[in-house]
Amino acid sequence: MDKIVVKGGERLIGEVEVGGSKNAALPIFAASLLTEGVNLLTNVPHLKDVDTIVRVLRNLGVKVGKEDRTYRIDATKASGHEAPYDLVKTMRASVLVLGPLVARLGKAMVSLPGGCAIGARPVNFHLKGLEMLGAKIELQHGYIEAKADRLKGATISFDTSTVGGTENLMMAATLAKGKTVLQNAAMEPEVVELAQVLNKMGARIDGMGTKVIQIEGVESLQATDHEIVPDRIEAGTLMAAAGLTRGNIKILNCPVRHLEAVISKLVESGMEIEVEGDGIRAAGSKRIRSVDVKTAPYPGFPTDMQAQLMVMMTLARGLSVISETIFENRFIHISELQRMGAEIRIEGNSAIVQGVEHLHGAPVMATDLRASASLILAGLAAEGVTEISRVYHLDRGYEGLDKKLANLGANIKRVKAD
Ligand code: EPU
Description:
Layout: E1 2-7, E2 13-17, H1 22-31, E3 35-36, E4 38-42, H2 48-59, E5 63-67, E6 70-74, E7 82-83, H3 85-88, H4 98-105, E8 107-111, H5 124-132, E9 136-140, E10 143-147, E11 155-157, H6 163-174, E12 179-183, H7 189-200, E13 204-206, E14 212-216, E15 221-222, E16 225-227, H8 232-244, E17 248-252, H9 260-268, E18 272-276, E19 279-283, E20 293-294, H10 306-314, E21 319-323, H11 333-339, E22 343-347, E23 350-354, E24 363-365, H12 369-381, E25 385-389, H13 392-397, H14 401-407, E26 411-416
Parallel strand pairs: 2-17, 3-15, 4-16, 7-8, 11-12, 20-21, 24-25
Antiparallel strand pairs: 1-25, 1-26, 4-6, 5-6, 8-10, 9-10, 12-14, 13-14, 17-19, 18-19, 21-23, 22-23
Helix pairs in contact: 1-2, 1-7, 4-6, 5-6, 6-7, 8-10, 8-12, 10-12
């Protein structure tokens, strides 16, 4: 297993380019199951999670060809029904094939994802919604078994905002008979992008990006071409890296419009962030100011940036309160940050962070994707050497973050561990 070794203290300077979005790409791969013909996806990031969804699709009889960042996906002859435990346990987003499989092939056997490092993350809203669309659902031996002749449109109201639930049901409803209305739908940019791609495939979706999405079912969908949008969380992570190192970087391919809540907090913390030509310039200040943050569904502050912002607050002047409202267990990075000298205490779903003058390098362990990124950020700002183990979590969702940071001047390297 690889380790990342960071020697802190270097200011980040230069230009960096953001790659394609993981959370936009995964549902679009799943959506290809709904189509006949060859879908062409470009700007797909090289990530472990993309490899996993490709394995899930191939297992269902989908032909997937790959050339660098371009994928050709042909589900015309897809005939399998099963997303097995071995794949789903490595990536929960595999459950996104459930809606498309039932809608197009009338049957799906998808392993229940089980627990996760950041929270219980059940899929009850996905299942309840599919039942309302007329699917018969049974849970057997750890698998979700779903069957339907043809799904029928329905009005479905989510109890809480769910990105994956909205995506799964939106995909299923495209081939249902009649009209589906999703109320209290997720408004994340990735949901909007999926809806746009489905419409290019011939779906009739309206209202994406608002809380009410309407889908008029069609008979069939055809393959399409699509370029994956840049990753807003990677861009935000790079901004935080500049803030932590008093750096000055230009971020190319930055999806600024998807980052308003993040940019607003970073500016409040003292960073200068400005649109400059074809990118965004992000510059850190001498001393970070403390800000309070509460994660919320889009357009609120994303939970996927919570750990990175918390690292900034460990070095801020004063006290900040960071509340996590999306996942009940997304504070595992705190104990690792404490080992680096951070002063943080947890009260319910809030972390109370008292800024300190310095963090110090230490061996730490990554526990999930965004926690890994946050530990690298902490290492960039810390005195001495930080060794981050279990970086396979990082490789699930950031393409070459260590190389990108090294190109900006960070003293960082990947070491093959025994
Ligand atoms: N929830 C339920 N029941 C459901 C579905 C969700 O109780 O049936 C709960 C979850 O347990 C959670 C909340 O609702 O507490 C929100 O979960 P959501 O369904 O929105 O999350 P997700 O679709 O599983 C996606 C991203 C996550 C991101 C969240 C929130 C993908 C592949 N994953 O997960 O990304 O944190 O939305 O924005 O799009 C990451 O990239 O590191 C990551 C975890």
